[in-house]
Design goal:
alpha/beta, single chain, binds D-glutamic acid
């Protein structure tokens, strides 16, 4: 039976976890929210690499059959070294520039991501490989991760932040927005409403879940079995116990990170 370790700098990776649960209903899922160290977006590469190493070691000791890096920022910095270090399928996430470039009608796409992801060589490579003939506008989104970490997915403050970041992209003709941080699909309702019906939002999470399912195709399917979920947080436990079940949509056991 598959046991899958999924992690993010915080609760954003739940947007990936829900797609995994949807495709793999019988798998056991372990989720680590590194909320005590979020946001990763402004951290050094060395800091992020050390966090990734600690969390992956925890998963390895827990006997997982695969690891999912449900964080664009951590994927850009550390997916490579994880694959070199652990003899397990490691599935990572990257901003969905390729499908966005294929779908835009205006020829302008906006990439919403953290400053570190936008500066990463991986982004330059994606734009180079798939963004030819398309204008790619990069947009950091200050404060969005923190709003999601607090569970504030709507309301005046969140809407003002989202409006400030996306308006310049819309003004330049973007009709396709890449949700290049796993926290951002959790703000999809607000982004979609402010962007309007003619703008498409692209979230790579379903593709990540499909890639994971493909990599686990040989694992016993466990037909009829209902998989379990366990959540750990490195941040304040009271906040996680309020926010994670609300985002996950049902009661969830939240455990304190073994210090
Ligand atoms: N959810 C993360 C991502 O996909 C990182 C957000 C952050 O901690 O800055 O990039």
């Amino acid at each position: 039976m598959a046991t899958i370790g999924v992690f993010d700098s915080g609760v954003g990776g739940l947007s990936v976890l829900r797609e995994i649960r949807h495709l793999l209903p019988s798998a056991d899922l372990l989720y680590v929210a590194d909320s005590g160290h979020a946001p990763y977006g402004e951290r050094s590469a060395a800091f992020i690499a050390a966090r990734v190493d600690t969390i992956a070691t925890f998963f390895h000791q827990a006997g997982v059959t695969a690891i999912v890096v449900a964080c664009n920022t951590a994927s850009a910095v550390a997916a490579h070294s994880l694959r070199a270090r652990f003899d397990l399928p490691v599935v990572a996430i990257e901003p969905a520039i390729k499908p966005a470039a294929q779908r835009t009608r205006s020829g302008v796409i906006g990439v919403l991501a953290t400053p570190r992801t936008l500066r990463s060589p991986g982004i330059a490579r994606l734009v180079d490989a798939h963004g030819r003939g398309v204008r790619v506008l990069m947009q950091a989104c200050p404060g969005w991760v923190e709003q999601v970490e607090r569970g504030e997915l709507g309301g005046e403050r969140t809407e003002a932040m989202v409006a400030r970041a996306i308006q310049p992209l819309l003004a330049q003709g973007a009709d396709t927005l890449v949700l290049g941080c796993t926290h951002f699909p959790l703000l999809r309702d607000v982004i979609a409403r402010l962007a309007g019906p003619n703008v498409e939002l692209i979230d790579p999470a379903p593709a990540v879940a499909r890639e994971l399912a493909r990599r686990l195709a040989d694992a016993p399917a466990g037909v009829g079995r209902v998989g379990t979920e366990r959540f750990w947080t490195t941040g304040p436990i009271a906040q996680a116990r309020a926010v994670i079940p609300a985002l996950w949509g049902r009661p969830a056991p939240i455990l304190e990170w073994p210090a």
